[in-house]
Amino acid sequence: MRIIAVRNRGRSLRWVGVLVLLSLVAGAPAARAATLPFTGSLSILLGSFGIGIPGGGIATVNGSGGFGHLDSIAIPAGAFDAQGLALSITSPAAFPLRGIQLTAANAVGTFTKPGPGSIGILGAAKVCLFGPCSGAVANLVVPLDVVGVGGTTYATGAVNLTVAGAPWTSGTASIGASTAHGFFHGPASQTSSTARRSGVLQLVTPIFISTNLAGDLATVPTFGVLNLRFVPEPTMLVLGSVALVVIAAIGRR
Fold first, then answer.
1. Total-model pTM
2. What are the percentages of helix, strand and coil residues in the chain, rounded to 5?
3. Fewer CB within 10 Å: C terminus or N terminus of the chain?
């Protein structure tokens, strides 16, 4: 009788663990309706070189429409923020480009698939010429305020710049023969479940930069890339792990 009682208790506890896991899965969307935590990067691609700002935050997906197929997303300001983030470039083929320095952050913004969507970048990218950014002979300071929203801005100095921006897209952005590609997919690469944990969204935008310089620096094909990956909340990971440990331990007993 005692053996039977122990087995019955173990069977009951195993079902408790299973029910905990099922309740976590079923209750996850209700716990934080229409919001998902994310990590990712905001990058500026200049020719074959790129510099990215890592970051993360809480995104609102599909307004109040819940999870599953991604229709729209809103991200908070400052999810990606860098002050003087620098990339050193030593390739002889890139001369006179010797570095890129980024001081920028994203503004609050929204995107409705497939686009266009408006998520601004506040700040500037410094293109360092004939030397590293710590001691460059000349710099091009590229204002980024029109990137991701549209419009044209200008910068005057030793080198005059015209920067034209455009909204974001999840499709393809083109500048002449140069392209950058967006995409979206959910777990196991399913496109109908992007707005779930482990879903991935990549947005791209063209940045048209022209200067008063001659040669290859007269026009500089540049792109913005925003990559978001939805991740499980830490509390859900901890509770789920505990439930799995309980089930495994009971199974061994």
1. 0.76
2. 25, 45, 30
3. N
